[in-house]
Amino acid sequence: MTLVVASPAQVSSENEMAEIHKQGQGVLVRRTGFWALALLVVWGGQSLYTWLINTFDFAKVLVLERDAAHHLDGWEIPVLQQRFNGGFLVAWGVVGLSLWAIHRLLNKKRSADFLIETNEELKKVTWPSWADAKSSSTIVLGFVVFLALFLWSSDMFFGWIFRLLLA
Predict the structure, then answer these.
(1) CB 61 within 8 Å of CB 90
(2) Are residues 25 and 104 in the same domain?
(3) What pLDDT, in 10s, does the model give residues 92-102?
(4) Digit-coded pLDDT (tens) for 100-130
(5) In a shared domain, residues 98 and 162
């Protein structure tokens, strides 16, 4: 019988995979990043489901089918507006694995440190007051309207000139 002794580096790398790096720090940025990516993944899962249903016949076959006469395409899931069938299992299995991978990625040491530093930098930003933001937005909106009117009138003027020249 052979006794295997793990080095401290091996033990710490195994523990790093199981825990969240610097838990409680950079929470807002980590959550925002996770939910933004999760939204994209769920949207992709919805598209994957549609593609599987329209492309492959196996995706339409119900897994755990009990009554073939009544449930040929699977049971309807009202909230998702999808049917519980092979395509559903594949698409949402991919979504689940992707969400797990995103969670793991955002909690790796390098990613977590980057997001924590980003959160700290955001705390240092001097954000404008509501009055400043409102007045700046009004100026920008006014300039956009002025520029739109200028371009529209220039287009009308040059269109009129070219119609006179070509007539």
Answers:
(1) no
(2) yes
(3) 999 999 999 99
(4) 999 999 888 898 889 889 888 888 999 899 9
(5) no
